[in-house]
Structures are given as structure tokens and as C-alpha cells.
Amino acid sequence: MSRRLVLVIAVLTAGCQDGHKAAPVLDRAPAPTAGSAAPAPRLVRVPGPRLELPADAAPRPAAPAPAAAPPFEAEPRDATWATETEAAVRTALRGADHVGSLDVTCRTTRCRIVAGSSHGMLSLAAAEVERALADRARHVVMGAITETANGGTVTVTAVFDRAP
């Protein structure tokens, strides 16, 4: 004959600030009889303390959302700065071990770098791009990682300290 030990767990809470006490979350299960399985505990709904607002309390207006930066494609291209910066980014990534293909497009304050790498090496390629830009760009934002059967690409956007 095997013996079963039925544990009943009750959640004990201290009194709330307003003096209410919470009831146990699980109802006590009746002891099993010989030859019967222990019944599953039953969930008991317990109303929690309610926050009462004064009748004259008006909801606060929502804080305005911060202005979002325009999409990369909407930023105008400063041909001189963009051409020089694209060349500098390519030079910085020339010796990267895990970056195969490289597409660099700059605008006025941002550059989008799409680095291709072999399968399984995309995170290393992303780290190499980030390291190459770390002391040149104000922000380096990792974007989409796209995997294909032959490898994949990682898209990185670099934001530079430069007035538009």
C-alpha cells in the first residue's frame, strides 16, 4: 500500500494599509478516501482592495510623445559629407573578418550599413560593424538581421553628431 501526502498551499498575506486581509488563493482540498485520487485544488477568486478616487478627480492629460526622427529615406543627402563618410566606413570595415559584402548609404546625419556574412556569423559581423563605428558615431542602432540559405545580412544605422 502506498501512501500519498497531499500538500495544500495557502497564500498568507499581511493586512493591507486599509486593514483588509486577503483570503487564501487555493481552497483546501478534502482528504482523499481509500482508493480515490486526491482532488485538484480549486481556485478561489478573491476581490482585492479597490482604489477609490475622489469624485472630482479628473484624469491627467497624457504627456506628449517625443518627436520621432524622420525615416532614414526622408533625410536629405549631403553629397559631400555622405560620399566622404561612406568611404570612411568602408575603410574602417575593410579588415573585418566576418563582413563579406558591404553596402553603405549616408544622408546628412545618418548612415545605413548593410553587412553580409556567412551563415552563423551574422552576430560577429554585427559586432565588427559596431566596433568600427563606436568612436565615430554618436549612436549605433542595430536593425534587422535577415538570414538566407547562403548566409544573411545585418542592417545597422549610425547617427553622427552633425547639424542637419
Features:
164 residues; alpha+beta; Gyrase A, domain 2; 2 domains; four-stranded antiparallel beta sheet; 4 strands; 20% strand; flat; disordered N terminus
Describe the structure.
With 164 residues, the protein is of the alpha+beta class. The chain folds into two domains: 1-47, no CATH class; 74-159, Gyrase A, domain 2 (2-Layer Sandwich), CATH 3.30.1360. The protein has two helices and four strands. The protein has a four-stranded antiparallel beta sheet with strand order 1-2-4-3, with helices on one face. A hairpin with a 2-residue loop joins strand 3 and strand 4. The longest helix has 14 residues, at 79-92. Mean pLDDT is 76; it is low at 1-18.
Give the topology.
Blueprint: H1 79-92, E1 102-106, E2 110-118, H2 122-133, E3 139-148, E4 151-159
Antiparallel strand pairs: 1-2, 2-4, 3-4
Number of domains: 2
Please identify the structural class as seen in this structure.
Answer: alpha+beta
> pLDDT under 50 segments (min length 5)?
1-18
Give me the Rg, rounded: 30 Å
**SSE order, one letter for each helix or strand:** HEEHEE
**Average pLDDT for all residues:** 76
CATH class of the largest domain: Alpha Beta
Q: Spatial order of the strands in the main sheet?
A: 1-2-4-3
Helix fraction bin? 10-25%
Query: Tally of extended strands?
Result: 4
Q: What would you call the shape? A: flat
